[in-house]
Specification:
Elements (H helix, E strand, L loop, with lengths): L1 H17 L6 E10 L4 E10 L2 E6 L9 E4 L4 E4 L1 E6 L3 E4 L3 E4 L2 H9 L3 E6 L4 H12 L7 E4 L4 E2 L13 E2 L3 H12 L6 E4 L11 H13 L4 E4 L3 H10 L3 E3 L9 H9 L3 E3 L2 H12 L2 H4 L1 H6 L2 H13 L2 H24 L18 H13 L3 H8 L1 H7 L13 E4 L13 E6 L2 E3 L4
Parallel strand pairs: 1-4, 1-5, 6-9, 9-10, 11-12, 13-14, 14-15, 15-16
Antiparallel strand pairs: 1-2, 2-3, 5-17, 7-8, 17-18, 18-19
Helix pairs in contact: 1-2, 4-5, 5-6, 7-12, 8-12, 8-13, 12-13, 13-14, 14-15
């Protein structure tokens, strides 16, 4: 593990010191997958100054840049994790693998994840690392962040010993959101868990926090625990809800309300379901990508925990998994926009790898391969205010696959190359 972390530090330092620049690049003979339009074009993609310059079916005679012949391989937009905590990985038994945000951001590029949304960590560190990256001083997947987590006194997020912002009245909510807004968070994260075991903010405080953020043109992502939490968050006019309720299934009524009000869902199915899936199918954690992205202590912790599970516990967890899939299916059928988030940094998810697992679970829940791919690419870009795609003017964040992700969404793991802002990133696993 030490060797891997030293390598990551060296790569981040190298990018910062030498300021590697994107090149004039032509990806030739490629199957170019456009998730937004649901079309595949065969031809050549020209990349210049970190953006997609054009598509053509022929190679210009006077082209002087670098040509990479993909020989029929598949090009998709870069993937996005819209709910992560980039400080490392966590597994059962309080097993942790700590990392710096830049090191994690660099690491997950190898998984084709070209941007992350960190929804709570050390506020000052996240602010500093994001600003360093935007100044071109560190590399890695693009860092977006809520900076802090807005919660009740002794509410969720306070248990980790990391400074967070608390509010316990509508007046405090207005003050807290306005103060945080001065640091220009990419979104505002709010915790609202009436059905949870920890204190939560009141409904009135929730409404004021969202109202204040909306007036400041800041998107809100609200962490929920129950179906009733969802109902209040929908009424308050949040931008997005993260997590599926753990108390009962999402009803058709709730799903249709979300769709009618254009509220986005970041379900993080993987964080709720994969821990037991690792037991049912040990080959998941044997995948080369998982082996590279998680330390052996993390992988061993899941294996050790799985040996402790009783048959009744296993049956309960598998039944609970099906509840999450049914809830996601209800949301999908109602037309709610789904985006990929993993809650990595917590138990049940692995930085980078779990984005691929989340897409699989979205397909299991009822999305097509096209829609699951959009959830992690073009639709994720719209949420972040970015043009993530394969068309002229889009940012050149791309992943080259050996096989079609439309035929089988698991093929997103068959990565041959990653391109980040026009730079070719070597794959190390």
């Amino acid at each position: 593990m030490l060797t891997r972390h030293l390598l990551l530090f060296f790569v981040v330092f190298l990018y910062a010191r030498h300021g590697f620049t994107s090149e004039l690049l032509l990806l030739s003979n490629a199957n170019i997958v456009d998730p937004e339009s649901k079309v595949i074009r065969y031809g050549n993609l020209l990349i210049s100054k970190g953006h997609i310059a054009s598509f053509s079916t022929i190679i210009p005679n006077n082209f002087t840049g670098r040509i990479i012949d993909l020989k029929g391989k598949w090009v998709i937009p870069g993937l996005n994790d819209l709910h992560t905590h980039a400080g490392g990985n966590r597994a059962p038994g309080r097993t942790s693998e700590f990392n710096s945000t830049p090191a994690t951001a660099q690491l997950i590029l190898s998984a084709g994840v070209t941007s992350l949304l960190d929804l709570f960590g050390d506020e000052d560190d996240l602010f500093r690392q994001r600003e360093l990256q935007r100044a071109g001083k560190i590399n890695g997947a693009d860092i977006f962040t809520s900076l802090s987590c807005l919660t009740a006194i002794k509410g969720h997020c306070t248990e980790y010993g990391i400074k967070t912002r608390t509010m316990d009245s509508p007046e405090e909510a207005k003050t807290v959101v306005e103060a945080l807004a001065k640091r220009k968070p990419d979104v505002i994260k709010i915790v609202y868990t009436k059905g949870g075991s920890m204190p939560t903010i009141s409904k009135e405080t929730l409404f004021m926090a969202i109202k204040t953020a909306n007036l400041l043109n800041l998107k809100t992502v609200v962490h929920i625990n129950s179906v009733e939490d969802m109902r209040d968050v929908i009424s308050a006019g949040a931008t997005a809800i993260t997590h599926l309720p753990s108390d009962e299934e999402v009803t058709t009524e709730i799903a249709e309300l979300m769709a009618a009000r254009n509220i986005i869902m970041i379900p993080t199915i993987v964080s709720d379901t994969d821990a037991i899936d690792f037991r049912q199918d040990p080959s998941i954690l044997s995948a080369p990508m998982a082996q590279y992205l998680a330390g052996q202590n993390i992988l061993n912790a899941y294996k050790k925990e799985n040996l402790k599970l009783s048959e009744s516990r296993i049956a309960m967890l598998l039944s609970r998994n099906q509840m999450f899939y049914r809830s996601a299916n209800t949301l999908i059928k109602a037309g709610v926009t789904m985006l990929t988030g993993t809650d990595s940094g917590g138990t049940g998810a692995i930085q980078g790898f779990s984005v691929h697992r989340e897409m699989i679970k979205l397909v299991t829940s009822g999305l097509s391969s096209w829609e699951a791919l959009a959830a992690s690419t073009s639709s994720a870009g719209k949420f972040l205010g970015k043009k993530y795609g394969v068309n002229q003017g889009d940012e050149a964040n791309l992943v080259v696959l050996s096989e079609s992700p439309i035929d089988d969404i698991t093929n997103t793991q068959k990565i041959e190359m990653v391109i980040h802002h026009g730079k070719v990133i070597n794959i190390n696993w």
